[in-house]
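Re: [help] complex structure
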Amino acid sequence: MIQVQSLVKEFPQKNGNTFRAVDGVSFEAAHGEIVCLLGVNGAGKTTTMRVLSTIFKPNGGSAQIEGYDIVSQGDMVRRNLGFLSGDTGLYMRLSPREFITYFGRLYGVEEQDIKKRIDEMATLLDMHDFLDKKMEFLSSGMKQKASIVRSIIHDPPVMIFDEPTSGLDILTARNIISFIRTCRENGKCVLFSTHIMREAERLADRIVMIHSGKVLAQGTLQQMREETGFEDLDDIFVHYVNQTGMELENHEF
Amino acid sequence: MNFKKALIVFRKEILEMLRDKRTLFATIVLPVILYPLIFIGSSSIMSRQADILDKRGAVIALMDSLSYDTPDAKEIYETVFQTLQETPYVTTLENPPHLEMLYEEREILAVVSISDTVSTSGVPSYRAGIRFDASGDQGRLLFEKLQKSLSQVNSKILAKRLSEKGLEEEYIHPLTVKQFDSSSTEKKMGNLLGMLLPYMMILMLITGASVVAADLVAGEKERRTLETLLVSSATRGEIVLGKYLTVFCMAMINVIINLISISFSVKFLLSQMGFAEQGLQLPIKSFMILLLAMIPLATLFSALLLSISTFSRNMKEARTYEQPIMIVSMLLGMVSFIPAMQISNLMALLPVVNIALLFKGILIGEWELSHLLITVGSTLVLDVLAIWLTVKLFHSEAVLFRTEEDGGGLRSQRKSKRGFFNPFNGAVYFSLALVALYYLGTKWQMGNLVNGLVKTQLLIIFLPVFLILGFLKIRGGEARKLLRLNAPKPKELLLVPIIAISAAVTVSIIAQLINQVCPFPPEYLEGLEKLFKLDVPTWQMFLVIAVMPGICEELMFRGFLIRFFEKGKFWQSVIISALLFAVFHLDLFRFIPVLILGILLGYLSSRSGSIYNSMLSHTINNALALFIGLFSEQSWMKFIVVDAENLRYWVIAPALVILALSLWAFHKVTAEKNENLELGLEAENR
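Output below.
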């Protein structure tokens, strides 16, 4: 599970000031549950996820993945975490099988387990035709499948998806969405971020709304509807933003 | 650190490299085809070109400028004419009209004019002048040919005259000089290869390594694969190690292929030219030592290029940042072309230069074990530093996830004064000052030394600080705070002279010890002595050598320049400014002593928050050197001084004790103040 308490992340700027990308964010996500970080571009979703996955070090607050502290037990955190984002690249001169095996080895998975898992997942995702072709010759859908298998090769209990559908065509995006659902069915703890309201509506068990690095509101969609009196998630979001008096800049949804 | 994970990274990177056509071409194909082309191709083309030029033929003019119409003169002229006509591919015109015009239009390529004089005793002598255009290959070849023909004429006439007098040719050659070369053929070969090979090897090493290095981190950033790698359970240290091994391995493969290709080409060339029969062989054993000597350099470049790659946003940027390193290394590698340059213990300390000279030394068989050890040792130290830097960079979020946005030019920096003081601007400022010092300062000091020193201190060191502050609109109290122009405590002022004198003594003993290992050249010492034997009053010398540097250099280094590097820890800015201070003295022999002094001065001013402390210390230090220089001949100085440059060694013991005690006291006295080292500019910025 994921526990986040008053997380703060600052970036130094060229003019000597610091910019607070994440400003006291707290939330939790349990096993068998999909929690969605919802917010406009630049709200601090990606930064939060990067701190949780130990790429960035937090400037304040704390967080635990499966009970392991993200600062002091980074190695255990990474072992228990699968990370996938929509725009991650791949090694073009490797085949999906080599690519996945590489990460399996880095995670310390046994050779025969890697083989077995690749085989299982390839059947599940219909990948056998291109498993040994070089990435540079594959379509974006095929590449995304390779990325999916890469993210779960070490069978992590916690999955983090950072804007997993951004930049993908509809069919590929559907693959991802159904994969996220499968993760929940398998009892994994899933955190995913998006700026697309519809996606949050369709997938999330609970929603954490983020704006300017702060949590606006969190709860189930039903709770939010009752609290605000709006039906549509767009309206609910704008309602919460207006409530805090923060400016909603010209962001596209 | 799990070495197994580093190996997993290494294996995957090598697999990717071997599948990349560009890398394969640069590291394997290029060297295989390059050397045959250079060695064999160029030599055969060269000889063929000369042949073509020769066979093209040339028209020359023979001018009769004889003033005496004697049979002797006539005979000489006739013989010359005949010989020239017998010279192949040369057409000789006798006294052609419009000579100047024809020569200008290059119809006539050379003019031979025969003139004569009579010596005081009445013996006539003749001269054949050859006029030609030495800037062209054709002109030079023609000249060589004509010279050969005309010297034939000389020997012909000489032989005839001798036989007329009944003398043998030995009569006019009472002493002939002959050479007996004792060097072995290997050594000759080594000398030839020793010039060319080090340079080529260093060049190929860098080209090979840079292609690979740029791809490994900057390439991952560009392809957006780095994030995935960082969330895997390999630590950043393991990732760096794996990638470092990859660059090193590819660089060494490149070197080995280069060496093999070179040896085959040279061998082929030797047998073609018939040298192989004369026993001229390739020094295979030296090649093996070369390969070993290449390892530390390869590790250094791997680490250096990898850190550049880590720092860069994308591959293009990485290749741009690699350029200066490549150019500097190539220039350093060229030392092997300098004729008398040989490896020494001092040279073995300089990166790249040491390997190039060691190569040369090994190939001609003139080197010592200490050279090899110092070379390997000093390179490894730099190597460890570069790897440490790469791991550091890998832990820096700001570097790994640098975005395209930027602070945007001087205009915006003027608005944000605090942002102006960043390491990049500091480096630019320092480089400009260094260039000014090198071109203007040295020129001024060559004219009138005292005058030049004053001008350097005022115009290059002192003035720019205030011009920049003026540009940034930092004035009054703000400027005083920035430059640390704060009054020191009386206790501090009391301790500083004790620190300064004991430190000066300690440092000069260290300098003497360094001198034992790497002796100063005599010219250098003469230059120093000149400084102390100037024909000016002592008080003027005191002002120019002690007081002015104390004020101006302290303002520049401990007041201004150090501010550019104060983002990090206390010692970081002190050491960086001290390094720059040492570089600024443009003096390799005093680098370490000056560096130590710089660290001390930086500590004094930063710790106490008052630049007057370091100014006083600097002035005392320089004054002391002046004092010893002036009075070293006096008998009452002899118990501590050997001569103007050397103190007696025993003085280091009391000096060290006093230095340690006084520094400890200084540290105690300044304890309360050092918390508040802020730049004092934030309030204005918010």
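The beta strands of chain A are 2-12, 18-29, 33-38, 60-65, 68-69, 81-85, 158-162, 189-194, 206-211, 214-219.
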